[in-house]
Amino acid sequence: MGDGSGTGAGRAALAAVAVALLVLTAGCGGGGDEGGGGGGGTSASAKAKTVTARSTDLGKILAGGQDKTLYRFEKDEGPKSTCSGGCSQAWPPMVVKGKAVAGSGGVEEGLLGTSKRSDGKTQVTYNGRPLYYYQGDQKASQTNGQGLDQFGAKWYVLDPAGKEIKKKAKDGGGGGGY
User: CB 3.0–4.6 Å: which of 18, 79, 157, 161 could bond 115 by disulfide?
Assistant: First the structure.
């Protein structure tokens, strides 16, 4: 006991406990299943399923959870997503459990739908096209992904009628992209 070997073993055990606690704590984070929704609780879950329209420098555009901008990928020809792997990390799909909800601002319930992704999750569609968030948008109403050409095609915001808005965002939209 006086040779110090007990101290080394004690430190190793303490380190193992600390690592186990970190792993457990990380596993308890807010739900990523509803893309861009974050946080816990019923109201956060309901908000994550709601598509609203927000006024920005591009005009009225669609937004999802936490009022983050939603985009359309031009490579998607119909309701099935062509964005997976690294693409879906940079451009997380808006996914829901169940059905999406039309919120305020002129979002049309009849244009909302869903489509099964290759990973089995349910992605929200609008006017027959899958919806995505952009990792470069850190705050509500930012449009840093507008007009970017990534993963084989361009990305655009949509107006409440489901049409692409192709004009460029003004500077000051919240920073650069990926």
Answer: 79
